[in-house]
Amino acid sequence: MTSSTVELLRQKKKQILTGWMNGQLADSQLRDDLMANEDLHAQSEKLLDTLFTVLTDDSLDHPDSASLNPLVDMLSGISKSRARQGFTPRETANYIFSLKDTLLETVQFALKDNPERLVGESLKIGKFIDSLGIITFETFIQGREEIIVRQTDEMINVSTPVVQIWEGILAVPLIGTLDSSRALLVMESLLQEIVNTGSSIAILDISGVPMVDTMVAQNLIKTVSATRLMGAECIISGIRPEIAQTIVHLGIDLSTIVTKASLASALKHSFRLLRLDVKKVPTSSSDGLAYD
Amino acid sequence: MLPATTNVTATETVFVGHEKDIMLLVTLIRQHASLVGLTSLDQTKLITATSELTRNMLNYADKGQVIIDQLTRGNQRGVQLTFADNGPGIADIDQAMEDGYSSGLGLGLGLPGAKRLMDEFHIASVVGQGTTVTIAKWTDE
Lengths: 292, 141
What we know:
The structure holds two protein chains of two kinds. By secondary structure, chain A is an alpha/beta fold. Chain A has two domains: 5-154, Orthogonal Bundle (Globin-like), CATH 1.10.490; 163-273, Transcription Regulator spoIIAA (2-Layer Sandwich). Chain A has helices at residues 5-11, 13-26, 37-54, 57-61, 69-85, 89-110, 115-158, 180-197, 214-229, 241-250, 263-273; strands at 163-166, 169-175, 201-208, 233-237, 258-259. A five-stranded mixed beta sheet of chain A has the order 1-2-3-4-5, sandwiched between helices. In chain A, helix 5 packs across helix 7 (115-158). The longest helix of chain A is centred in the middle third of the chain and has 44 residues, at 115-158. Chain A is elongated and about 105 Å long. Chain A starts with a helix and ends in a 19-residue tail after the last helix. The model of chain A has no long low-confidence stretch (mean pLDDT 87). Chain B is an alpha+beta fold. Chain B has a single domain, classed as Heat Shock Protein 90 (2-Layer Sandwich), CATH 3.30.565. Chain B has a five-stranded antiparallel beta sheet, covered by helices on one side. In chain B, strand 2 (64-73) and strand 3 form a beta hairpin. At the A-B interface, helix 9 and helix 10 of A face helix 1, helix 2 and helix 4 of B.
């Protein structure tokens, strides 16, 4: 006697799309600067197509059912790409919530002779769209988090340069927390650079490392051991007074490693190891500088 | 004179589920520590202990919670941290607090080291239910 609500909506798909689009275009917050209206139309149409392909009366009641996965995937994709395009969370959520108005209008019109059923169905549709809204919200945040993770990774990569400061001497100025993934990266690029430059001394400067806990210390010890296996000497410099005290309290033994308070003293030590001598040149009477 | 009572003036709870979270947590705790006026040395000790205990939490329980409290006690101010997880727990706490003992791959200095860095250190654990470690660092009176 009564056809299903989903069937009823499916028949009115064209009308729903038009209503939804009109609603979106009339919205004063429409971001036509971020997305062309034709693209928005195409995206909305595709979403409705997917919605009506997978939606059944049963899944309308159970928005978390697996049969809706294609819809959820598509919605997640839209939400994530909107996060990257620079839409605000409000704009992204409104995109899906504006569909609710159109759907409700449609059932209101179709069921106007059956107020009791109308109330029930309206509630169901409301709940269903709300759960879709939550999905957009979740994936929007995920999209932003992916951006943050990517930026963090980029930051890690730029902050671990290996520089040659003298013939045979490499320096790695470390800045920020030295977690295991970063320690591995530092070790790899340092060992590679030892091969490339034929250096015999590496200086790990930890002036910019906020703290040395047992794991950071372990990573430093490993890097020093690996450097030694390559036949090079490794010096750790930039040990601040508070870091030195913390290491002692923790009970970490770094006595087998050459450590220096500053990069300058590590360089001095390296010169001594390489039997280099840095001297002030006596002022000559003619040009102020004298060369051998 | 009555012993001064300890009051909590600010609280913040942080969820930890990944090694990358440690960096953020440490930055946050340093802010709290400098707000209450801990010296640079004490700040470093506090964040080192934090890193130590958070890593333990991630290693053995995968995830957990860190509660940061700012405290006052008479003229003193301090930071108290509570590390709570629902991990496997520690069967023998005395053994875990020994230098050089590790059930994992670490140096075995994490727990005893963290205790030496702190003014207050308390550990409670129930096997199968989880571990809670509470540490505190105070300013000078």
